[in-house]
Amino acid sequence: xxxxxxxxxxxxxxxxxxxxxxxxxxxxxxxxxFRDFLVIPGIEVTSKHGHILGLGVRKxxxxxxxxxxxxxxxxxQGGVAVAAHPFWLSGRPGVVHHARFDAIEAFNSRSYFxxxxxxxxYAKKRGLPITAGSDxxxxxxxxxxxxxxxxxKVEGVxxxxxxxxxxxxxxxxxxxxxxxxxxxKAMGLR
Length: 190
What we know:
With 190 residues, the chain is an alpha/beta fold. It has helices at residues 2-8, 23-27, 67-76, 115-126, 154-163, 175-186; strands spanning 13-16, 38-47, 50-55, 80-83, 103-108, 130-133, 145-148, 167-170. The radius of gyration is 16 Å and the shape is globular.
């Protein structure tokens, strides 16, 4: 089903970034249905200052470290460190103030209200590259937000992000679904 959603959305690939784990990523490229897609290895690290995307990493990055140390560990692997949903009100807003990032996630399909505009404004003001992500926790959420680059290989995508040669687009998760997820989380039903 995920491949069908990617194709329907006109996507050529995806960055697979589980929370604090590379486990599922190790299996993805070997699944026959994913051989037609560019799979960017990555992780979403829970630092003590907020979430950080490590794009292009192939080794685990420990959770719970400071943002600056997390960014350095991502770069040591040749990865790109992206401040994930940096002004997300339901998370830890302000991760951007604790490290120098390679890029800012300026559009996240799960972020509402001022979160995305603040992230875009922050990136523009500081001249930082931007990305967008679905932050999809379910198959139907994948592809809601996307980053466009002109590259055919993982290294080309990472370099395009570093240089700011990206454009972003997409739409938010439907608001009622968003509210339902918040309520489930608040009630401990996740």
